[in-house]
Amino acid sequence: MIKQIEKTVAYLQERGFKTPEVGIILGTGLGQLIDEIEIIEEAPYNQIPNFPTATVEFHKGKLIYGHLEGKKVIVMQGRFHLYEGYSLQDVTYPVRVMEKLGIKTLLVSNASGAINTNFKKGELMLIDDHINLQGSSPLAFNGVEKLGERFTDMSAPYDHTINATFENIAKKHNITLHKGVYASVVGPQLETRAEYRMLKIIGADAVGMSTVPEIIVANHLKLKTAAVSVLTDECDPDDLKPVNISEIIAMAEKAEPQMITLFRELIRTL
Fold first, then answer.
1. Cis bond before residue 242 (omega within 30° of 0)
2. pLDDT (0 to 100) of residue 157
3. Residue range 14-45, pLDDT digits in tens
4. Distance CA 12, CA 65 (A)
5. How far apart are CA 27 and CA 159, in angstroms?
6. What CA–CA distance (Å, rounded) separates 9 from 7?
7. How far is CA 25 from CA 95, 107, 192, 270, in A?
8. HSE-up of 241 (CA within 13 Å, CB side)?
9. What is the pLDDT of residues 209-262, one digit of tens each?
10. Is the Cα dihedral 15, 20, 25, 30 positive or negative?
11. Using one digit for the tens of pLDDT, what is the confidence trace for 70-127?
């Protein structure tokens, strides 16, 4: 993997991806942040050596480099998931590449379902902690110790200072920003009523199919990390209605201006 990363990094550096400070992973329906960036270079995933290719129709497939709020940023416009058939090492490969390019901070967005019945669709949730229900770890492979400490500490996977800044920005702009625990499952099927009950019992406030692998690897690489979920549906097992994926994407897009405000103002402070 080290040689693969080196080849990928060399390609991107030749394309002009020079010393980014912040990495951003954009989730479902959250692509309009790209419009706020002064783009310098971009590279389609299918042209980057050793990079996976996004297979989900509403996930773009480009790595973008540019300026946002005075910082050099590298943005994944489209991410990878276990449910697409990738390994956890594939899913997190871009995080390792971004770290080698120079990022010190990783910011992640996603769409998730609200388990906590006090949370409503269209609102945002700052991830304070997570539960990994994807069945394995992106660090579970031979030779991982050559890339970072094998037994990575996860007592505080999300940076307290960044989270506090997010909360201050939300308060300033009257944005509803809950704080809670995100559970990551494999998918792509949505959960049953019994599964939603289980998730609530074990302490999840929201559930999705991404983010946790990337956060684990970011901690492995000693990056500062933070993540925000758009709550796109309400998952009350006692009043569960069928979910329409197009409605989930539309809800994510509706909440996007608030997400953009949070991310822009946060990056300005870094």
1. no
2. 98
3. 999 999 999 999 987 678 899 999 999 999 99
4. 10
5. 20
6. 6
7. 9, 6, 28, 17
8. 6
9. 999 999 999 999 999 999 999 999 999 999 998 888 888 888 888 899 999 999
10. negative
11. 999 999 998 999 999 999 999 999 999 999 999 999 999 999 999 999 999 999 999 9
**45 touches 51 (CB < 8 A):** yes
| Tokens 């959960």 sit on residue | 191
Helix (H, G, I), strand (E, B) or coil at 164: helix
Structural contact between residues 59 and 105, judged by C-beta atoms closer than 8 angstroms: no
For residue 154, the SS3 value is coil
Instruction: Kindly provide the residue ranges of all beta strands, DSSP E only, lying in 188-270, ordered along the sequence.
Output: 206-208, 224-234
Q: How far apart are CA 115 and CA 117, in angstroms?
A: 6
Distances in whole angstroms, Cα of residue 106 to Cα of each of 188, 195, 200, 218, 228: 25, 30, 28, 7, 12
Q: How far apart are CA 10 and CA 225, in angstroms?
A: 25
Structure-block tokens of residue 93: 């490969």
Q: What is the DSSP string of 15-75?
A: TT----SEEEEE-TT-GGGGGGSEEEEEEEGGGSTT-----STTS--EEEEEEETTEEEEE
State the residue for tokens 């390609």: 11
- Domains in the chain with CATH codes: 2-269 (3.40.50.1580)
Strands 206-208 and 224-234: unpaired
DSSP 167-201: HHHHHHTT--EEEEEEEE---SSPPPHHHHHHHHH
Q: Report yes or no: 75 and 34 within 8 Å, Cβ to Cβ.
A: yes
